[in-house]
Amino acid sequence: CGYGGSCFPKDVKALVQMANDIDFDARVLRAVEERNELQKHRLARKIIDRLGPDLSGKTIGIWGLSFKPGTDDMREAPSKVIMRDLIAAGARLRAYDPVASEVAQQELPRNWFDDGHLTLVAHPMDALDGVDAMALVTEWKPFTNPDFDTMKNRMKQPLIFDGRNQYAPVEMSERGFEYHSIGRIGVSP
Predict the structure, then answer these.
(1) Segment (H or E) for 62
(2) Is 1 a catalytic residue?
(3) What averages of pLDDT result for each successive group of 10 residues across the chain (189 residues)?
(4) What residues contact 169, with CB distance under 8 A and at least 6 apart?
């Protein structure tokens, strides 16, 4: 899903600027920036391509809001871009993060909550209640080996979009999930 945070994006931008200041062609660094921005949109695009351009009436579960595990920091977090793209397509979101929910309430647009487009939940499985698909955005340890049977039972359809390649495609297919990840072929049950 791309990288985020307060340091790495700023550092790459600074290196590009320093290169420009000395008339050095920082083509590779610019490509890193561009690819990262595209990557942030890619997971949402996969979901939209699979479910259709109008996500009105669809609900997507989101696992992970912070830019990386172990922090509540949402600066430059891929989750913000992914959620914005999905909401723009009409989706409703049910999101869970072990520590970033409080920060999310402060940093994300108020209208997402007020209009009912985003609901933050207190347990990862609650994010899956009746969802049409689930997106794994941050690779928190609790997401490493969840109860897949419970997941499948709570979801409207067993459809996972994994932005961090947490799971093995063959195993997901054997468990009865349609599974899409990054840089690997999607699988069905």
Answers:
(1) strand 59-63
(2) no
(3) 58 69 79 73 96 98 97 94 98 98 96 97 98 98 96 98 97 98 93
(4) 179, 181, 184, 185, 186, 187
Rounded to 5 degrees, φ, ψ at 44 are -60, -40
0.70 exceeded by pTM: yes
Q: Tell me how far apart the alpha carbons of residues 51 and 59 are, in angstroms, rounded to a whole number.
A: 11
Q: Which of 179, 149, 147 is nearest to 163 (CA)?
A: 179
For the chain, what is the radius of gyration of the CA atoms?
17
| pLDDT number for residue 33 | 72
Catalytic residue of the set 3, 4, 7, 120: 7
Domain annotation for the chain: domains and CATH numbers: 42-180 (3.40.50.720)
